[in-house]
Amino acid sequence: MIAQLAGLLAIACYFLACALLGRALMTQQAPSKMLILSLGAIALPLHGFSIIEHIYQHNGIHLGLFNTLSLIGWIIACLHIAISSYRPLLVMSLFAYPAAAFGILASILFYAPYQPLTDLPKGAESHIILSIFAYSVLFLAALHAILLAIQNNNLKNHRHKSQNPLLSIMPPLQTMESVLFDFISFGFILLSLAIISGFITLDNIFAQHLLHKTVLTILAWFIFGTLLAGHYWRGWRGQRAVKFTLIGFGFLLLGFLGSKVVLELILQRV
């Protein structure tokens, strides 16, 4: 009950921050960066307490679909607040905070059959943590790519800031692209480590229930790697970077969460 209350308070903080930011944009006023980020910072420990209570239970570690969504949302909110404290990325609050709030709500309202993790192989916990962090960072990269696409489209069509309030709090295009590749680079490193640790720690990473996840994750890794190589050696950017990012994340989404949806909600295999 206390965990649910903490989760609901965190949701209230996230949505209050979004409401204040949205109101400032609609009235064409300068939003209070300190207030928006502070509300998110207040939500983080509440959200974290909710996660701990839902995941760490007496019979093992519960990393089912909805608890995983909540954990991913928390990591996204943490990364957003940390990065926005020194870079002009307040606009991401409109994406990161709702993602975090949705994760909490899902963990509170829904349940899927799941076999708690008890006797993990040596090193498997590191693989799980790396996988979740890689997914969270690349999720943030995908959200950033969507914003970059919106900004590109508005600039090409010569739309003024008054026609799209989001433009008023977006940094210059060059900064947006730089941040996108920072996210992708960091996420690619984490994903590489997650894949390597999976091959080392898991008995059979190509087992039937892991095959599609492994193949899709490797495809995503290849796409992000190709994008980074093309960016640093051929100068790829703009719409090409957006497309590669969204396609790569699409494969990761299917492999990471898609498999959990099929196994836990459709097949109900625990």
What does this structure look like?
The model has no long low-confidence stretch (mean pLDDT 85). The chain has helices at residues 2-26, 33-55, 65-84, 93-109, 124-156, 173-201, 208-234, 238-266, and strands at 56-57, 60-61. The chain has a two-stranded antiparallel ribbon. A hairpin with a 2-residue loop joins strand 1 (56-57) and strand 2 (60-61). It is built from 8 helices and 2 strands. By secondary structure, it is an all-alpha fold. Helix content is 75%, strand content 1%. The protein is globular, with a radius of gyration of 19 Å.
Number of helical runs? 8
Rounded average pLDDT: 85
Considering DSSP H and I runs of 4 or more, what fraction of the residues is helical? over 70%
**What are the segments in which pLDDT stays under 50 over at least 5 consecutive residues?**
none
Strand content: under 5%
Strands, count: 2
Shape: globular
Supply the helix-strand structural class: mainly alpha
Largest sheet: 2 strands, antiparallel
**What does the oligomeric state look like here?**
single chain
Radius of gyration: 19 Å
> Which sequence of strands runs across the widest sheet?
1-2
Query: CA-to-CA gap between the ends?
Result: 26 Å
